[in-house]
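Recap from last week: sequence in, structure out.
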Amino acid sequence: MKSEYNQIILMSLAYSIIYLFSLIFATGSKIGINFDYNQLIAYILIIITITFSLFSFKIKILKYKRKAIKIIGVLIILFLILFFSGIIGFNEIAFAFIIPILGLPFFIFSFIFHYLTFNK
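Predicted structure tokens:
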């Protein structure tokens, strides 16, 4: 079950990086990091997710691993809420990232469900 735990963390890191790239390419007239009032929330969420995911590799106790997986699930839900709420403005280039942004959470949540259900 340790490999499944690591897979969830690696998928959440990949999701955060894909979301970061979609924000970088969706800034508007030029490519780069743009700290608008609406995209700043997403950048903060990305930093929190990457930091938490990297620190969760060090967790050894099963009870804390289960809590870490639940927190990662909540962070992925927050990413999806930001995406669907329209807070973040996207342009045409960001549509290349729609399939990973909407598809990868399905796999993350299926792994989370399996890990939390069958790992006692």
